[in-house]
Design goal:
The chain has about 700 residues and is of the alpha+beta class. Helices cover about 15% and strands about 40% of the residues. Strand 23 (about 390-400) and strand 24 (about 400-410) form a beta hairpin.
Length: about 700
């Protein structure tokens, strides 16, 4: 009698289209099977003969260089043995030589690339494309990234486009951004980052460890990660941060060269980190905070120095208040913390401060920030200060040839305003400030603040610039618990507004309104200044100042105009590579009572729009034309115009050189689009020139079968 022919596998079908649909991974542009953990997927195994009861068959999933069973890096799944390390396998049906198997990975399996082979007796079959990608699973209740709302999962995991909010608290605008987590090579780039992070297998199970590692790897500091930060204004050796419109080009370039891509600023870091987290299956959103404090000394205080003309001085402070700062929130249960800190966690990949010796930040629970539990890991003190620090204004005066510092006022409400993210399922801004802090002035806010202060111990009220110690500080109150606006004897109040649209090439027309509200005659010295500044708070140019003494009676107000001619700022505007904001600062001093008050407002320039013309729907694989039209309605020529366009699933990032666009001229560019995926797709366009960096727009089209 011949011995039984030994059982051999002749082929494997990964049933890709069925599995990826069920796992919400059908978007990934990759040959391999991509599945989420804790959820069954099926594979069809073809054998050289029927499967019998005595046959030994095992599916083996190995992760890492040298997978071993006892290390938990090799899962050997046998149908008769229910469970292996939380992984399960079962025979769904046998049909002649075909055998349909169902595999469920553990809901806390390490995330990454698994090599699959099938062992039958002593034979081992290695399929081609046998690498299976395993991701986090927000659809699985047992996974710590589980999110129970389908609309939120669609937005925070599956949406590959969105907005990042920038500008200033006075004028917020949305910058469209393509996350593109499903594009070619993006998943592989994320897997490369996971390997590069050297996280242990155990840490790869935990989104808190993974998100912390990714916040370090998205910046190039310490570990030659994805993006090199640059705020110098000189970007000739790379791409200016303003010139990106999405993460795809950046991550593809990084994956190809394995070298840091030049250059990023905060919204670019946040855009890329958002792509990486969504790609790995962790729900994630970009979060913009306006007037974000960068408090280097963790004393919940940022000092701002003004000269007597009311102009802000750059050189004196290591701290800064950024007009906006963008980071990310990632969604997860924190199994490493006491109860009550699950949900959104702040992570930040912009290299500002080191955390445990490396430039990274988070994950920090939003609930810990709100409750003042700033000792909880990770980086609670830094995030708390970003949204809660006080701003202290000092005037620097020369007294007998020496600089002396006079404290003018403390602003307790300005920092951490209008915390914003894109709304779920809608193209609008959602304000999430109340997820980060209690309402200003509420009982809960005071309690949370006292709690935070008990861990942070702020220093006294000395000015603390590098060489400020020569001047005598005018006040040493060590109780920074000022929650209300400083109430003055005169009810002094300042408002700053623009009275005309702020178009480049036109005069900048602003007004400082000074109000008093208590009976009496008041003589008020008002100093006001206008400067151009970067979003990081760094002053780029002084444009002009005014000084007036006004008289107000009782409850009254007076408006003081501040007008800057185009010649005063156009040269600066054309020479910088970044978008700059208009900063107006005012100081008012009441002679009779010595009340002092400062106020500053940042405004952005306003630009004519780009319009996009294309059909509302198009058919899969059928070309259509998309036109971009821009009319220069400004009084200045826009030099060296470049139009950047990208449409995920439609066409790759493309740049049109448009040369100079004279006032009144119309620019028109067309691109032929070939849709390769169905559903709603977005086209993003951005126009940059010497004078203007920030005109962008987007438009959606529905692609049907």
């Amino acid at each position: 009698v011949f011995p039984e022919s030994s059982l051999r596998v002749t082929g494997i079908d990964f049933l890709k289209s069925q599995n990826t649909r069920q796992h919400h991974t059908d978007g990934y542009n990759i040959k391999n099977l991509v599945v989420r953990r804790g959820q069954p997927f099926q594979v069809q195994v073809s054998l050289n003969r029927e499967l019998r009861a005595a046959d030994k068959l095992s599916l083996r999933f190995g992760i890492g260089e040298n997978p071993l069973k006892n290390k938990g890096s090799l899962m050997s799944l046998k149908p008769e043995q229910e469970d292996f390390n939380g992984w399960k396998i079962s025979v769904v049906k046998k049909n002649g030589k075909e055998c349909l198997l169902s595999v469920t990975s553990s809901p806390n399996a390490p995330v990454g690339k698994y090599n699959l082979n099938v062992k039958t007796g002593t034979n081992i079959y290695k399929p081609e494309n046998g690498v299976v990608y395993l991701l986090f699973n927000p659809w699985c209740e047992e996974d710590v990234v589980y999110m129970d709302n389908e609309a939120q999962r669609k937005e925070y995991v599956l949406n590959d486009t969105g907005y990042i909010y920038v500008g200033s608290a006075y004028s917020i605008y949305d910058r469209p951004w393509n996350f593109g987590q499903f594009e070619e090579f993006i998943l592989d780039a994320c897997m490369y980052l996971l390997d590069k992070s050297k996280l242990s297998l155990r840490d790869r199970r935990d989104p808190a460890c993974v998100s912390r590692a990714m916040s370090a790897l998205v910046n190039a500091n310490d570990d030659s990660g994805v993006l090199l930060g640059n705020w110098s204004g000189n970007y000739v050796a790379g791409t200016a941060p303003m010139d990106w419109i999405g993460s795809v080009t950046i991550l593809q370039k990084y994956y190809k060269t394995k070298k840091p891509v030049r250059y990023g600023q905060c919204w670019v870091f946040a855009g890329v980190l958002n792509t990486v987290m969504r790609c790995l299956g962790v729900p994630c959103r970009c979060v913009s905070t306006f007037n974000a404090a960068h408090d280097t000394e963790e004393n919940l205080r940022v000092d701002v120095y003004l000269n007597e003309r009311g102009e802000k001085l750059n050189s004196l402070s290591f701290d800064s208040v950024w007009n906006f700062h963008v980071w990310n929130d990632a969604w997860m249960k924190r199994t490493d913390l006491p109860d009550g800190f699950d949900g959104w966690q702040a992570i930040d990949s912009t290299p500002q401060e080191q955390s445990q010796g490396i430039f990274r930040c988070g994950p920090c629970p939003l609930k810990a920030v709100r409750e003042g539990d700033v000792y909880l890991p990770y980086d609670g003190k830094f995030v708390y200060a970003e949204v809660n620090a006080d701003q202290v204004y000092w005037i620097v005066k020369k007294v007998n040839g020496k600089d002396k510092y006079f404290k003018v006022s403390t602003e307790t409400r300005d920092i951490g305003q209008n915390i914003s993210t894109k709304a779920v399922g809608q193209n609008r801004r959602e304000d999430i400030t109340l997820q980060y802090k209690y309402p200003e002035g509420s009982k809960e806010e005071r309690k949370s603040m006292e709690r935070a202060y008990s861990f942070i111990r702020p220093s006294g009220m000395m000015p603390r610039s590098g060489y400020a110690m020569t001047g005598q500080a005018q006040s040493l109150d060590n109780k920074p618990m000022v929650l209300s606006e400083p109430v003055t004897k005169t009810g002094l109040h300042i408002e700053i507004t623009n009275t005309e649209a702020l178009h480049p090439g036109n005069p900048l027309e602003m007004a400082i309104t000074v109000k008093t509200s208590t009976p009496g005659s008041w003589t008020i010295d008002v100093a006001g200044s206008c400067q151009l500044q970067y979003y990081t708070g760094k002053v780029q140019a002084n444009l002009g100042t005014i000084k007036e003494t006004i008289k107000l009676e009782g409850k009254s107000e007076m408006q003081i105009p501040l007008k800057i001619a185009p010649d005063a700022y156009m040269k600066t505007l054309s020479s910088v590579e970044d978008e700059v904001l208009i900063l107006v600062t005012a100081i008012a001093e009441v002679k009779e009572t010595n009340d002092k008050l400062t106020k500053e407002t940042s405004m952005r320039f306003e630009y004519p729009p780009i319009s996009v013309q294309m059909p509302e729907t198009a058919k899969l694989n059928n070309d259509f034309t998309c036109a971009f039209i821009f009319k220069n309605k400004l009084n200045v020529t826009l030099e060296n115009c470049k139009l950047l366009v990208e449409g995920l699933g439609l066409f790759k990032m493309t740049t049109f050189d448009q040369g100079d666009i004279m006032p009144g001229r119309i620019m028109k560019s067309e691109i032929i689009c070939t849709p390769v995926r169905v559903g709603e797709k977005k086209i993003v366009a951005k126009l940059i020139s010497n004078q203007i960096k920030g005109i962008s727009t987007e438009k959606a089209i529905t692609i049907i079968e």
